[in-house]
Amino acid sequence: MQLNDFSVVSTNIEYDHISNIIRKTYSMNTSIDITVTELKILIDEYLVSIQDANIPISKIINSYVKGSYLVYESKYCGKNIIELGFDMSKFDDFTIYIAKMLEVVKKAKYSGIYFDPHPKNFVFNTEGDIFYVDFFPPYTDYLKAKRLNCASKDEIQIIEENYQFFTKEFLAEHFCGDFLNIDLNAEDIFEKIYSMSKDIGLYTGSLNDFVCKAKHIRHIEDMRVKKNIFLL
What we know:
Blueprint: E1 11-16, E2 21-26, H1 36-52, E3 60-66, E4 69-75, H2 95-111, E5 122-124, E6 130-132, H3 141-149, H4 153-164, H5 171-177, H6 190-199, H7 207-226
Antiparallel strand pairs: 1-2, 2-4, 3-4, 5-6
Helix pairs in contact: 4-7, 5-6, 5-7
């Protein structure tokens, strides 16, 4: 599996084995009214907000604008659970990883930042330490407003709804629902993720509400992708 397989936006990912560096090249997919330089400022500010929430991220070695692209080079920090061999039948073997991801999601929730809790966005080094590695798009109210300004009428509702799923009100259900993006049979593990979320105070509602929201979030995200609607 190639690292680019884990990106659903126009991101090119390269791993330099010699220097142990991950190089990500980003580009915008829409006609949003911001310059590449302004976008870099937004990313850098978003990275600060993630660190302020005490969420561990890979060390940024270098970042720069290259024409219409943004390049970020960071220390390689390990593999996500998909690369580590996760599947539904092995859930119990991966609960230590799931628990660490949920603790990070909890930090994001109580810090109030926008956050994409997809399981592929977390990696683990050989010591089992967790790192969050996704910061594009740098979701903010400002970027949301800019995106809606250039949206067509039939895009507005799905963009607004999809954007709210990255806020604190939906992070636990969003994390759970994204397992359907890994395996269509993932609903079989929803109750286990629900119980783990309840145990750490990440979620307080009912199982039925949790499952319904998780499935709805994934449905809306899949619909957005199918309609070729990008958030940036």
